Amino acid sequence: MFELDLPVGAALPELGRAMEDVGAAVLSAPPGSGKTTLVPPYLASITEGTILVSQPRRMAARAAARRLAGLLGEKVGESVGYSVRGDTKRSRATRIEFVTAGVLLRRILADPDLDGVGAVVLDEVHERHLDSDLSAALLLDIRDLTGLRLVAMSATLAADVWARLLDAPIVEAHARTFPVDVLHRPGPAPLGVRGVERDFLAHVAAEVRLAADEQEGSVLVFLPGRREIETVAGMLDRRVRVLHGSVPAREQDEILAGGPQQQIVLATSIAESSLTVPGVTQVVDSGLAREPRTRYQSGITGLVTVFESKAGAAQRAGRAGRLGPGTARILMSQTSWSRLADYPEPEIRTADLTDFLLSALRWGDPSDLRLPDPPPEPALRSAEQILRRLGAIDGGITEFGRRISAIPAHPRTSVALLRLYDRIGTRRAAEIIALLEEDQPVPGADLAAAWRDMVRRPTPSWRQSVRRLSGLVPDAAGSPVTADEAVGEVVAAAYPDRIAVLRSGTYLTAAGTGAVLPQGSPLTGSEWLAIADLADSGRADAMIRSAIPISRDLASDMGGIEETLHEIAGRRVRAWRVRRLGAIELNRWPADIDPDAARPLLIRSLPDLLSWSDSALHLRQRLDFLHRTLGAPWPDVSDEGLSDRAEEWLGPELDRWSRGGAIQADLVDCLRRLLPWPEAVDLERLAPARIESPAGGTAKIHYDAEKPYSAMKVQECFGWQDSPLLAGGVRLQIQLLSPAARPLAVTDDLASFWRGAYSQVRAENRGRYPKHPWPEDPLSATPTRKTTRRAT
To answer: Cross-referenced InterPro entries, in alphabetical order (predicted)?
Structure first.
């Protein structure tokens, strides 16, 4: 092993003891301490077998392998190699292999024993990518069975979490750091309704120029994505280099090799922790990053621009102090910085979990996995629905699902490749799918035009993806279909839930999401679309970012199902045979009613279906009063209670209605079927419909309030001292009315009213109603329904 004076070197003996004692350790070491360089060869010196080192990104895996091989005086692929998607350099002599988390995950699934592997190093675990989290969980299972050695490493690490997960000690290394002068340089608001504001990007460019002019060292600029990098690059009047995941490997190598000249490197968070750009003394940090977000109900997934975390900001600023004193310009105020989250959101909480769930099911029961954070239930349900629709699971993982999982691509595009390569041709299928995997804008959302443009002017990353995908399935020429038909079939096969039909100027997707095309799109007016990419617009309808017009027949072929639908229309049950694609109804025709299917629909619809006459409603209110007051056996006649006992009180009617008969009934007779026997004989005594007044007439008793009440004119109640008792003790309230039937008072204690409030009522009303009696002593007066003149 080579000798390097790096801080992690002092921690290697403690790491070795942890490997000897428990076979696992958590190494916390800041950037520049040498953990990626020294730990793998040290493990190789004390462990038999291959040392796999997982990196979060392809660029980092290649760079780490090149650096370590160079220090050993070898070429990459000898004792040190790497394996990333579409690119592998290793041999039988390779002892240390750097891999991406995705490659590691697929290797575990293909070889659960990891035969020949002595130890696995999980580098930069703080970034919390899905593949990294899942790989860690599977490695814990393997460790239990085989004794595999594990090391989790990070520069900014919630060490306690990983120590508990691995049941391992924490080993710390302290770097010799140089001071970094942190300048807070806020500018215009960075985010607007359309993303990162151009004025803010102009502020970034101005700070880059200042940083480059202040010192001779290189400037590392952090921006959230490719579009912002291209915009800022166009604003600078000097040569810049760009660093993101789609930059060709050769250009990445040139940047990471460095040189004597000052470099201005515009990078995404890819350069935050797992890569070292030589010569950097100045950092300009936009304070923005991209994270995956998923709306599980609508299925909209994508990257969104967010403010970085404090941990991310520290990582970025630290890049300026690797070689000597440096300066970090953070383009936000100290107050804004203090409000940042401590750590970035783990992908498992925000990302599409379709691929995660398929891999987990291939391993076993997802609920048994030991993960740093559990996956959200809505995310798992959404992923399960997608996998069922793709045919990957049916209870458990299907054989087709295993074939999908074996392909190193998203399950959606894997399905399209497996189903269509022999129909449209392997090469053409690979080209279209490679375009779907490219993180590039599609002008006007016209995917077919974007594909033709890519074929004419291919990017290196697209060419590499085409080669990789073409090698995953047999070579087939395919049948003659047009280019647009081929694109449509691929997108429809990969995203059947995003097939959409035009409805009143907007699109309805099979998943039930509304969507709109960008203004001026050449696809405007197309009746059917297969949508490859949807973005959250912040409004009710999502924005279509890429799509292709398709035929109605193709839409129908993509998983359309037939079912018999029963509905209530025109106060009758009607049945239809419906062919639908998710939320999209393709066509319908009349069908025979199935009474067994119609009956539950009728019962569910009862609250909105029944038309209550006054007499039926009055009886229902009386029964409700008795149920509330006396309880059983008087029936619960609430909406829920009536639905629960529908068969008892509506049995004959349900028989008739469920065969298509008109929905009408005498609900008084129906409700009487619920009356308890023999208690029903007491209904009129306990909750009478009417009451006789002292004057000889009758008045309706109302049961639609908390307490029953009856309305009578004051003159009808003369001499009446006690209101009657209902339901064994509830006193009837009397609403006393004027001769014009206007309310004067409400009481259930008439004797107290006559002795007290009556005198005031008399004084206010006898002049207003002189033709009606207003005696001074109402208790001794004769009740009457007549005027004074008629009474004599």
So the answer is: DEAD/DEAH_box_helicase_dom, DNA/RNA_helicase_DEAH_CS, Helicase-assoc_dom, Helicase_ATP-bd, Helicase_C-like, HrpB, HrpB_DEXH, P-loop_NTPase
Query: How many domains are contained in the chain?
Result: 6
Model pLDDT, residue 667: 95
The answer to whether residue 480 scores a pLDDT higher than 80 is: yes
User: Taking the CA atoms of the chain, what radius of gyration do you get in angstroms?
Assistant: 39
- Strands laid side by side in the 87-89 sheet: 87-89, 80-84, 96-100, 50-55, 117-122, 149-154, 24-28, 170-172
In a shared domain, residues 360 and 419: no
Percent of the chain topping pLDDT 90 = 62
In three-state secondary structure terms, 378 is: helix
Q: How far is CA 24 from CA 40, 52, 61, 770, in A?
A: 14, 14, 22, 102
304 and 231: one domain?
Answer: yes
Distance from C-alpha of 190 to C-alpha of 606, rounded to nearest angstrom: 54
382-401 confidence digits (pLDDT tens): 899 889 988 999 988 999 99
Average pLDDT, the chain: 89
Using CA atoms, how far apart are residues 332 and 169, in angstroms rounded to an integer?
38
Contact, 785 vs 715, CB < 8 A? yes
CA distance 56 to 76: 19
Q: Are 190 and 102 in a shared domain?
A: no
* Dist. CA 234–CA 211, nearest whole Å: 17
C-alpha–C-alpha distance, residues 398 and 605, integer Å: 39
> Does residue 222 have a pLDDT over 60?
yes
Give the global pTM. Answer: 0.73
- The whole-number average pLDDT for the span 305-309 is 90
Q: Give the integer Cα–Cα distance in Å for 664 and 654.
A: 10
How many Cα atoms occupy the beta-carbon half-sphere of 409 within 13 Å? 27
